[in-house]
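Hello forum,

I keep getting stuck at the same step: I have a sequence, I want structure tokens, and every attempt I make locally crashes halfway through. Rather than fight my setup again tonight, could one of you with a working pipeline run this one for me? It's a single chain of 269 residues.
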Amino acid sequence: MLINVLRNVFHRRKRPLPCPVCGSASPFLESLDLNKSCADATQPVFPRSGHAVDYHLCANCGFCFAPEIMQWTEHDLRTRIYNDDYIRADPDYVEKRPDDYAAMLPKIFPWADSCLRHLDFGGGDGRMSRRLCEIGWNSQAYDPFGAGGRLTEAPVGLFDLITAIEVFEHSQDPHQTMAELVSLLAPDGLIFFSTCVSDGENLATNGLKWWYASPRNGHISLYTRDALKVLGRQHGLFCTSLSDYSHLYSTPKTPQARTKLSAITHSNR
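Reply #2:
Ran it on my machine without issues. Output:
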């Protein structure tokens, strides 16, 4: 009982902040050590840093965010998160994840061929896109968060299918990320993206015990299904969640056959 009282007093000392997605009041939820990572399943990968990262939780749409890291400079991010040790926090991001999705996407989107333009947004070094090109896709990668080189140059033209694999949770500004995606999307295009939603985690009561809430991975924007819908709606897009991890954004002109086929194919995997 005393612990709960002290916790409530501490929480009241931190003012609510406006939600970056819907603008509603977002009270302080909990602090996590900067070195908490998604790979800490059995034991911590990194020693504690002593740097407490505050997370706030929107009372309206359920979006959970780390305001401090959202304000960090690119130098801060590269020095403290996306450095040479990042692979220890996310061992799959270099090869396994892009290879898995390169095998999965043609099954989810059998209509994607050389006539349709595909963009892998946030595509790292372009590994997934290269794999898709090998089987006949018209695919290219673009990573605005990259460390330099050709993949950081904005692509030309519009794309029928955009993928954003493990991108949304890293966004320092969800609306800016959405605006950039929309600027690259064809009027009848489709965005397929992956990010874990917190529905069922009951963050307001349980706090941030959720494995996906991990600042060392750069997970500073944590969504609910409602938050994804609100975010999409403000940019003229409809959101369909295929699972707790995979989602679609479509436009009013996106052919229904594309979204239905995608949803059926993915839900049967």
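The chain has two domains: 2-87, 92-267. If your local run keeps crashing, start a new thread with the error log.
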